[in-house]
Amino acid sequence: MTTAYAYVATSASSGLGRTTIERREPEHDDVEIAIEFCGLCHSDVHATRSEWGSTRYPLVPGHEIVGTVTRVGDSVTAFAVGDRVGVGCMVDSCRECESCAEGLEQYCEKGMTGTYGTPDRRHDGEITQGGYSTSIVVNEGYVLRIPEGLDPAAAAPLLCAGITTFSPLNHFGVEKGEAVGVVGLGGLGHMAVKIAKAMGAEVTVFTTSAGKVDAARELGADRVVISRDADAMKAAADSLDVIIDTVAAPHDLNALIRTLRLDGALFQLGLPADPMPAVDPGLLIRKRRTYAGSLIGGIEETQEMLDFCAEHSVVSDIEIVTADQLNVAYDRMVAGDVKYRFVLDASSLKEDA
Fold first, then answer.
1. N or C terminus: which one in the chain shows less Cβ crowding within 10 Å?
2. Spatial distance between the Cα atoms of 316 and 342, rounded to a whole number of angstroms
């Protein structure tokens, strides 16, 4: 066992505080990683504060991990000491079901093993602890290669926000000249704009805030629609092939669905804690539209996303924070006061200790 510095929550109201945790010794197929950066995802806030329920404490959050390989098991061939690598939202799956066989580990029929907060199926059921720490040990099959040329700090959010938005666009087969709508302009939304533009799409951003019009255009949006403006929404009818909805608060989807063309699809990525207003099935039926969900991506697709982002110079817009700023950063995330993702400098965990 090796000791790592970390920041941990001990209850829903405790906030995050300094601690040390034990990491296992690398087994024959494991990779040990010295963590350099870890993105702060809004789901970290939900989990830490038990807003989705069933959080197991103590909890070290963090599933957007970038670091350097420090040790490898004797059967590992894909990675070597010194490689820059990443770990996203999962660190294992059953490896046997149909979903896993198809490279869709995120839909593992027995449940994927999350990077934090879930029982480790291969190590005595111990609860996994995440990337707000100085090191982690992960099976080689769930480690990603970070391409050269990607800034490691700005690449960290790609491992959740990047793949979460890339996967539905990729699944839909978005190509040059197609029309993509993005609902919301936060951590997920700004990545959806960047990735859709890199795919060659014409991008429309829907926002409730007139103050975000310029920001959306700076990110590359071709059109910005204020979704509270009924006339603007009517003018956008039947104009889009696919919509990526990143909003995690209850909102009416019917006006958005009307902006889809024949065979268009709306992918729901935001997960509201409260019920959503009902969808009018007639809007789906009359134009063969689809209302779908999507969950991160498998390991192969996540690597594809990283390579795509390196090719097109796509990274997240970030603000780097130190360990002692984590609790403030959480409050700022809840208030929407970040453009667009916080990233923890893991070296500050040692300095703070």
1. N
2. 10
Distances (CA, A) of 159 to 93, 213, 242, 262, 307: 17, 27, 22, 32, 12
Place of tokens 């960290």: 156
Q: Are 272 and 249 in contact (CB under 8 A)?
A: yes
180-235 tens-digit pLDDT: 999 999 999 999 999 999 999 999 999 998 989 999 999 999 999 999 999 999 99
pLDDT for the residue 351? 65
Rg (CA), the chain: 20
Domain co-membership, 120 together with 81: yes
Exposure on the CB side of residue 204, measured as CA atoms within 13 A: 23
What is the token pair recorded at 75? 């059967």
Which amino acid belongs to residue 205?
V
6 and 146 belong to one structural domain:
yes
Q: How many domains does the chain have?
A: 2
Are 243 and 182 a contacting pair, CB within 8 Å? yes
Query: Does residue 143 sit in the same domain as residue 45?
Result: yes
> How far is 232 from 101, CA to CA, in rounded Å?
45
What does the mean pLDDT of the chain come to? 96
The size of the chain, in residues, is 353
Same domain, 118 and 262: no
Q: Token pair 């002692």 is at which residue?
A: 324
Asked if 7 and 19 count as a contact pair (C-beta separation under 8 A), the reply is yes
pLDDT score, position 69: 98
The yes-or-no verdict on residue 353 having pLDDT over 50 is: no
Q: Which domain holds residue 124?
A: 2-160+297-352
Residue in the structure block whose two tokens are 């990675």: 79
Structure-block tokens of residue 30:
């494991």
Helix (H, G, I), strand (E, B) or coil at 90: strand
Contact at 8 Å (CB) between 143 and 14?
no
Cβ distance 277 to 251 under 8 Å?
yes
- Taking the C-alpha atoms of residue 98 and residue 119, their distance in angstroms, rounded to an integer, is 22
By the 8 A CB rule, do 136 and 23 touch? yes
Quote the pLDDT of residue 274: 86
C-alpha span between 237 and 33 (Å, rounded): 49
